[in-house]
Specification:
- The protein has 381 residues and is an alpha+beta fold.
- The chain has 3 domains: 1-31; 62-73 and 272-372, Beta Barrel (Elongation Factor Tu (Ef-tu), domain 3), CATH 2.40.30.170; 103-240, no CATH class.
- The chain contains 5 helices and 12 strands.
- The protein has helices spanning 2-38, 110-131, 137-172, 181-208, 215-236; strands spanning 62-80, 85-90, 97-98, 103-107, 238-240, 245-250, 257-258, 265-282, 294-298, 307-314, 336-343, 354-360.
- The protein has a 6-stranded antiparallel barrel. A 4-stranded antiparallel β-sheet has the order 5-4-2-7.
- Strand 9 and strand 10 (307-314) form a beta hairpin.
């Protein structure tokens, strides 16, 4: 019996100890967990430096982003032929610097030259007959104004021909010593100004003279009109630079037959002395774009580099996208707002490059807490 009693007592003690362990251990563990989660300091993180996320911009978070395309200041000028014909001369190459009025391409013009010579001969004969006819003082003033205007037209044609010859000789390497292309350009510009002045004088003379032209005067006017048409056709066989800039593309070769078509681009010209970006922002971001707003441009070709610019132009209406469009427009396509960003300085970007544009938010509308938010991690679509 004493052995049985001792065994029972040991079982009772073991049961009490087990109950105590089952009660106190969970309580103690839960208190430690609560203290650990409620504590402001984390011992595990105290030994590691805390790195703040990079700021998106110096002035605050980005207001909006969009894809863009680099282009020359003033855009690209895509030049096509004005008349069908065969190319006989290509006077420029890629990266050449051209000035307004410089000859780029020349088409075959043998027939056009013949028409011009015939028209000039007819004008000379009719002018001689008209000069032998006596008229009053008012009619004589009108004749003088007409002659001055006709002479200004001939001087412009001659100045352009001299410039074309010098440019062609310079490219072929046979330009004579002392040939000054710049002087020829200036002479052509002066001829244009003189023509406009004589045009205004002729209009004034026609307004002051109310007399009816004689038959000889009418014949000379008709002959001069034929000559003007022949010279205009002769000029259309010459493709000139519409503005100062650099030659970006040349898609013409000597001997090719060209036709006047906007799709048949022969030369592309643009002023690369300064660049801009044409970006397309979604409709939801229109309210975040302002004129003069600072912008940052990024390109995959220059990782880690930001190119700074400002918004210089906003479209007045939404339109279809031009950057990512492939094929005909679909009903599900979304319209975008076209925005122009002028870039500062002379960045190493090239016309035609695809870039991402990020507009900086204005300081007045930015909370202080957003100044350390992470910058854009993905490219704008």
């Amino acid at each position: 019996m004493p052995k049985a009693d001792s065994s029972i007592n040991m079982l009772i003690v073991a049961a009490v100890v087990a109950l105590g362990i089952g009660y106190f251990v969970p309580q103690t563990f839960s208190q430690k967990v609560a203290q650990a989660t409620g504590s402001d300091a984390k011992p595990e993180a105290s030994t590691q430096p805390v790195t703040a996320p990079p700021a998106q911009s110096q002035s605050g978070s980005w207001a909006a982003s969009a894809p863009g395309r680099v282009e020359p200041m003033g855009g690209e000028t895509r030049i096509s032929g004005q008349m069908p014909g065969r190319i006989t001369d290509v006077l420029v190459s890629v990266n050449d610097r051209v000035m307004t009025g410089d000859l780029l391409l020349k088409l075959a013009d043998d027939e056009l030259i013949a028409r011009v010579l015939a028209a000039r001969a007819e004008v000379a004969v009719r002018k001689r007959d008209r000069d032998n006819e006596n008229v009053n003082r008012s009619a004589q003033d009108r004749r003088t104004a007409e002659d001055n205007f006709a002479n200004a037209e001939r001087q412009l044609v001659a100045a352009r021909s001299d410039l074309d010859r010098l440019l062609r000789d310079k490219r072929s390497g046979v330009a004579p010593a002392g040939a000054d292309v710049d002087k020829a350009r200036e002479a052509a510009r002066t001829s244009v100004d003189r023509l406009e002045q004589n045009r205004a004088a002729l209009q004034k003379a026609l307004a002051s003279d109310t007399s009816v032209p004689t038959r000889l005067e009418a014949g000379l006017t008709a002959a001069r009109a034929e000559l003007a048409l022949a010279e205009a056709a002769y000029e259309r066989a010459r493709i000139r630079a519409p503005a100062d800039g650099n030659v970006l593309q040349v898609n013409a070769k000597v001997g090719e037959i060209v036709a006047p078509s906007p799709e048949n681009v022969l030369v592309v010209v643009g002023d690369t002395s300064s660049l801009r970006v044409r970006a397309e922002f979604e409709e939801r971001d229109i309210g975040k774009v302002r004129l003069g707003q600072a912008a940052v441009v990024r390109s995959d070709a220059f990782p880690g580099k930001d190119f700074v610019g400002r918004v210089s132009s906003l479209a007045q209406a939404l339109g279809p996208t031009k950057l990512g469009q492939r094929g005909p427009r679909r009903p599900t396509d979304v319209d975008v707002l076209e925005v122009i960003i002028d870039l500062n300085g002379q960045p190493p970007l090239l016309p035609g490059m695809r870039v991402d544009v990020f507009l900086k938010a204005e300081l007045a509308t930015q909370p202080a807490a957003t100044a350390t938010q992470a910058g854009p991690q993905t490219k704008a679509n």
